Amino acid sequence: MSTRTATGNLAADPEVVQAGSIQITKLRVIENTGEYRQGTWQAHHTPTTHFVEARFELGGNAAASLRKGDAVIVTGREHTTSWGTEGNTQYGRVIDADSIGADLARATVTITRNTRVDRQ
């Protein structure tokens, strides 16, 4: 798996799903990509969609903090996943998030620290 960093805006509110005994928070990040040509920024016509999954405290904090339209930066390990039935299998790329944060170039935030729970 390769490490990937994506910046963009959330396409929808985070979705929390149950997978066995853990919760997974799913995000869709829309990245407006482009490139400089002859000194001028040329936006690509179609933005890139990144599918992101976050687990444990990271997923819970993302679900509690983020909403549709928020500017974010996501770093994690990217891999290919598949779904569907045999003969109708589809493939997609997913980033397993290691970090998710607000993009402070495009937003301000107020940080609230989590209360630490000592584990015995």
What does this structure look like?
The protein is mainly beta and 120 residues long. It has one domain (2-102): OB fold (Dihydrolipoamide Acetyltransferase, E2P). The protein contains 1 helix and 8 strands. The protein has one helix at 56-65; strands spanning 2-10, 15-19, 22-31, 34-37, 40-43, 48-55, 71-83, 90-102. The strands form 2 sheets. The protein has a 5-stranded mixed barrel with strand order 1-3-6-8-7.
Largest sheet: 5 strands, mixed, barrel
How much of the residues is beta strand, in percent? over 45%
Counted by DSSP, the helix tally is: 1
End-to-end distance: 33 Å
Given the helix and strand composition, which structural class is it? mainly beta
**Superfamily at the CATH H level?**
Nucleic acid-binding proteins
Top CATH class: Mainly Beta
Say how many strands there are.
Answer: 8
Radius of gyration: 16 Å
Could you say what the CATH topology is called?
OB fold (Dihydrolipoamide Acetyltransferase, E2P)
For the record, the CATH architecture stands as Beta Barrel
Q: For the residues shown, what is the average pLDDT? A: 91
Please give the domain count. 1
Q: Give the neighbour order of strands across the main sheet.
A: 1-3-6-8-7
Which descriptor suits the 3D outline? globular
Low-confidence stretches: none
Helix content: under 10%
